[in-house]
């Protein structure tokens, strides 16, 4: 068996079928993933704070329950490390900050509790930027996560450790969160699939500002079908989240590739001239979108109304940062990175009128997006405006000749879509001449994740870009 074709690179669904057929045990599956992780994680720094002993105990419990014929959860026996911004009971959760370097929560966040209830075997945590701020994964506790397709490049963020863990076969599923692209950007950079759901699809009962619906939690995987499987577990109503959607999420696991014939595709390669995009990304995405036309879809240049989306995102993000970390910056100004302190300062400059205007504009944009999807079934645009950049940079200084003045500028391809309140997914779309991954951002009407996944699965089926594994796996 070659390094690119072992048990750990099977999809989550294939691993579950192997467990159910007694082809291997949960302990054996965990051991296979752990051996892969121990060999390659020191090179990429994707998984942190591991507790193998607790993981093997959990795997043994799954095996014992299966042997006894007991009912098991839909993900029973799958090993997984959890994003280090999501609290895990009895397992260190640092948020990438020295302020929480020794923090061991006593309870799980809701997304973690749902994964445990589904039978997931938790092994460790996946690395993040400090407080998940920014789309480049580095922090003062654990350092930088490296891209598995080129170790000199960024893995993206904030779910960067999660994306790398998927790409290298450390786990078959990963959890993440997304305010300005933190599920979509690392998926694009690491050639995996990341879904930002509709706000409220995955409940967050611990959210401090639930009526500022910028940040969401969501799934990542190596295939669209596996994303649907995980979404069906973590989605669903919760009485403590006022925005939680009430629909039964179980049907989301049934991902069926869409018929592309007659599909109305809006292609917005620069979001209507609003974002710079590197030519090597544009070339890959032009070819990717042509796949839809070749299979009967009607593709035309069109972009939803995103005028004002930049102000909406930056205003509400800054207000949230001040709410979350303003007191920390006051007490210990040197304990957070400069970009966080800057974003907090932006929040403090806001007036109440500016915040309410941003909320009103977000409402207008969401209504306009709903009307846009009366005319188009799907919107396609870049998931990232450039290929993975030098990992030694704090953030890219320039994109396609345009200077980036702060750590948010280069993320606009994702955060302008965030303001529309719609589900958006990055799906592998091809590679630059240097072998760096490029993701296609696929977007649909609010609450239409099933439709979105069906369209993305059809593209995945016809291209197979996600099956190309990192060259790191070929090194003995």
TrEMBL record:
Query: Where would one find coiled-coil regions in this protein?
Result: none
Report the SUPFAM superfamilies cross-referenced here. Amidase signature (AS) enzymes
- Amidase domain ranges (all copies): 28-452
Molecular function as annotated in GO: catalytic activity
Top-rank taxon of the source lineage equals Bacteria
Q: What is this protein called?
A: Amidase
UniProt organism field: Mycobacterium yunnanensis
